[in-house]
Amino acid sequence: MRSLVLHILFFRKRTAPVLLLALLVTIAGCNLNQGTGEQMVNLDKVTDDPNQHLANLNKAISRNKQDASLYKRRAKIYLKKGELDKALTDLDEAIRLNKSDMANLFLKAQVLRAKGETAQALPLALKAERNSFQNLSLYVLLSDLYLQLHQPENAAIYSKKALKLAPNNEFALYYQGRVAEATGDTVKAAANYKLAIKEAPDFAEARRELTGTLLTQKQYDEASLQLQEALKLVPKDGLLWFYKGELYQGTQKPDSALWSYGKALNLADTLHQAHYQAGQLLFAKRDYGGAISHLEKAKKQYGNTIKYVAILASAYERTGEKIKALEQYQRLVELQPGYTGANYSIARLKAELTRPVPAYVAEPVSADTIE
Predict the structure, then answer these.
(1) Least CB-packed of 24, 73, 130, 308 within 10 Å?
(2) pLDDT tens sequence across 274-302
């Protein structure tokens, strides 16, 4: 089962988190009231075949459209299949039919989170908690939601509650690590990730986060070991290949690093950090056009950082794109007033752009040269 969980919709963290979707559905399964729909159709008979299970639920609902538990169970299947709008429709119906079942609110919060609607998911999860729906999966969800909303202090409240309920649960330990990392405590983060891995050696997500933390600490040997194990579990994870590039870069292997960043981007082109690092390496190799192509794609994440703007400005200037270079140097001065080098470059480029161009007198074209 864990292998299935870890391979369903895996990309997360510093890009677009979705691993929790599979994990929450799995954890929550035993907590949900199954209702009375099974009196008409034996719904548990085909649990290994979700499509058949779905077909049986459809039949059951067609016979009894007032059973909220049937809509809830069908919503769970839709959630696992990634059919989020259908899951949301069923949960709205389940809530209409049974407003006292907080599991419906919890599931709806999961669906909204999976749709990227974090702010809408949070109040539903909190309402479920206030109405005595209190379990490990809910606390994990709340911790994740608060992390996504950049509220690590609130996330810590729920990661602690999760640990209190299940001190050795790998997911509770993992989110305790996430909270520690968000507050800058990389030592505590690494310790919690290691505890999570001890409980579940094939927990690829924890290994991936541990790898990133170890790289931050420049512990390259241990990072390499964790990276190898994580890649065995999820060899097509873009962020892991980015970390491999960081590992190569940290150990002074720029060509291998550039190759790894390329591999990461082939798997996940939205990894802004991979574009940024690849752009810097290409700039160092004097491939200014290649550097620009990557740096422009990293603007959303790095557009307000001094180093990024300075490299991009220089790359534009070296490829003859003087107006774009001028814009970036002006941006540098906005970010850091009094930046002497940027002010000098602005004055120089303005002089070059306004310098009179010598008149060009065309030579008369001879009729003999026209074909």
Answers:
(1) 130
(2) 999 999 999 999 999 999 999 999 999 99
